[in-house]
Amino acid sequence: MAVVIIFLQYLWEVLKHKYFIIVAGFRINYLLRSTSYRVSYRRLFLHDISKLGKSEFWPYAEYFCGSKDINQKKHDAFHVAWLHHVAHNDHHCEHFISNYSQIAKQLRNNPELAQNYLREMPDDAIL
Apex CA 80: angle with CA 79 and CA 84, to 5°? Predict the structure, then answer.
């Protein structure tokens, strides 16, 4: 029974997210009506469609709607699903980094490297 609840909770969250994206897109198009710019309806309806696929749905559902004790297996499955998501959705800036999945895996497997990276990011922005 818990599996069905997790499934329905996450499905509701994804559909709610898609609804808000579509509403926001219509509002943006309304604001841009006097220009030649538009958000395509196709783009609005296909936004985050990969979250409903087998590569992402269940790892995301367990991570966000499942039990609060996230074990390493669930965390790893979520990480793989996230990498799949950014690789297939160009509304994420990580989509355009050609070797993002390798960088993310290196940072994830080397916490010290990740800490150094996070420490240096503000310095890079200032310089």
Answer: 115
**pTM exceeds 0.85 for this model:** no
* Cβ atoms of residues 25 and 39 within 8 Å: yes
pLDDT in tens, 98-126: 776 676 676 666 677 656 666 666 655 55
Q: Is residue 106 part of a domain?
A: no
In a domain? residue 11: yes
Residue 107 belongs to a domain? no
Residue written as tokens 């890079």?
A: 124
Distance from the Cα of residue 89 to its chain's centroid: 8
Number of domains in the chain: 1
Go through 61-78 and write b for each residue having 16 or more CB atoms within 10 A of its CB, e for each that does not: bbbebbeeeeeeeeeebb
Residue with the two structure tokens 């609840």: 5
